[in-house]
Amino acid sequence: MHWVYFNKLYRTKFQAGCLAKRLEQDGWIYGFDRMNEIEIFRSRRGKYGVRFIP
Q1: How many structural domains compose the chain?
Q2: How far is CA 5 from CA 34, 49, in A?
Q3: How many CB atoms lie within 10 A of CB 53?
């Protein structure tokens, strides 16, 4: 299993957290039925993103 990275980085952890919650609730909109694990990560430049394992 490999991580799938969502294509946008955000300036705040709050913004990334909102996207993570939306993926948990409405992941089917993006074509994913179930996600085993969703994680907020911080890039080397200090921005936040969301990755998950389908």
Answers
A1: 1
A2: 15, 8
A3: 13
CB 41 within 8 A of CB 48: yes
Q: Which two tokens mark 6?
A: 């969502």
Chain segment 29-51, per-residue pLDDT in tens? 877 777 789 999 999 999 999 99
Q: Domain range for residue 9? A: 4-53
What is the 3-class SS of the chain, one letter each residue? CCCEECCCCECCHHHHHHHHHHHHHHHHHHCCCCCCEEEEEECCCCCEEEEEEC
Q: What is the largest CA-CA distance in the chain?
A: 31
